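[SOLVED] Need 3D model of a two-part complex

Original post:
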Amino acid sequence: MLRIAKLPIAVFTVLIIIFPWVAREISAISHYTDIMVFAGIYCLITIGLSLLMGYAGQISIGHAAFFGIGAYVSAILTVRYGLNPWPCMLIGMIVTAVVAILVGTPSLKLKGHYLAMATLAFGVIIYIIFNEEVEWTGGPDGMPGIPGLSLFGFEFDSVVRYFYLVWGFVFAAFIFTINVIQSGTGRALRAIHASEPAASAMGVDISRFKIMVFVYSAILASLAGSLYAHYLNFINPSTFDLFFSIKLLIMIALGGMHNIWGAIIGAGLITFLSYEWLYYFEELEVVVYGAILLIVTIFLPHGLVGVPGIIRSWFRS
Amino acid sequence: MTDPFNCMPKICEGGVFAILTFLIQYRQMETITLESQLFQYLITGVTVGSTYAIVAIGFNIIYGVTEIINFAQGEFVMLGGLIMVSFHVALGLPLILAFLATVTLVTLVGMLLDRLAIRPIRRPSVLTLIIATIAASIIIKGAAMLIWGKDFFDLPAFSGRNPITVLGAVIQPQYLWVIGFLIIIVVILTIFFNKTIIGKAMSACADNADAASLAGINVKRMILLSFALSAGIGAVAGITVTPISLMEYDRGAMLAVKGFGAAVLGGLGSFPGAVIGGLIIGTIESFGTGLIHSGYKDAFALIVLMVVLFIKPSGLLGSVEISKFKRF
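Solution:
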């Protein structure tokens, strides 16, 4: 698990690059490029969450808050103050990092259920703030009129252009995260996951590493939030509710949280599920999510990326 | 995107709002002194807090035996309310019969939760157990939405809705039912855990599951029983609070978090702690909503929860040793 093979990354990159071209040719899936933009946005969050939960073993049920802070900082600064979106995106990430440090420092001293509940409570409080601070956020009605993105006169105004922008960010985050996993930091994180006292005895500064990963995952979520806001040009609080945090949990549990590929597979599948396939289930949607989460937890503790391993061990025995 | 886990304060949600409406009506008839208003907040807070206390006790029962925090705890309360509405209002069963049938049904749901979501997990870790109970909670909530829809449901109050006025505060008879049932539950559980063999066996599992198993106690059955018991009292909370605050399918998550806040504030695992924690959180919520900002109604309990977790995770009455030795 330490070494991450280069071939799948190359194949994956090529697939992503040709995706819009293929999708455009086949009318049945021509709108898939649009869905893939959202999949990419969620991938950014799950990559960070996978590092936090799978590698460092720290649960968070509040990442919708960081996603929301990124989105709202971008939206408020561009709509209310007319600033250029790019610095706003950066400010959003800085604000999120500060919030993550403030919340993470005391939270990450907690373990297990306590950490889960602390992050959950934090997420819901932020959600209530989005709803109640109407002067800033527009309240439950949301904020329309968020400008799109452009760089040196190049407008990211079509779905395909935005697709490449988002997946460019995903690719950068992916490579950076892989490097983190394969570095001494990655080993330290896994040591923390395996046994905190042992890691501490070996000289790993546990709380510093935990907070670093927490902040890193929060910053990625914030970036994703900004990209989401500028793509949809509209945000409202219901996107950033508790259920979204749970959906993120479903994504990484489904893909397999002990593997960085799991984050991408899970985010992709759940995005298509919620934007496309679950459409047919209508009201049943929530039950389907719950069933997926429960079945994965019981039968596939390592998620979908663990399936080849299970099949291999079947053949051996 | 849909938002099935919507925790936004709704217009008719909560006894707090109901009482504010009352206050406005009464203000037109007679002037209300500050003291009576504060007393009113206290009464409302204690009532709401009693519900949180019952949820917190439910957390403690399961946590005591299994060290699992059941994130689906609030769903039992929601189910209790909605099933009672179906039995009592839609089917027209008499109050006591509907009450018993509801509690039985929700108890069965609690047992199913253990059998279908908790026991099949082969290598339980804190993370997988958290995820499993979250999964169960959204399945229950989704099923409730399919059965009852997204409407709010009302239940006739057990003994009418003629308010009693005490010291200028308006007390609905149903408030007394809620507080009364908290007392009944506490008394029965105290007798159960201290006097009966099964109750003592459950306490033994809480102290040391391996040793209890060696002493011939069927730990699995005790776990099942803890889920059943916890679901049953959750249902009682739901049934008694519905005439005050109505009930709808997505109330569970918020009740669970607030109940957990109560359990942690009192000290996880401590039954007197759960009661004190619940009453304190309910009171803070009531005063906060009345005096500070009604839109942040749901935030007060959560802020208390976070502050307690950050400053003193062992709570008011919890022992530090327990929080250290427990397996996470």
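Edit: Confidence is low (pLDDT under 50) at residues 1-13, 321-328 of chain B.
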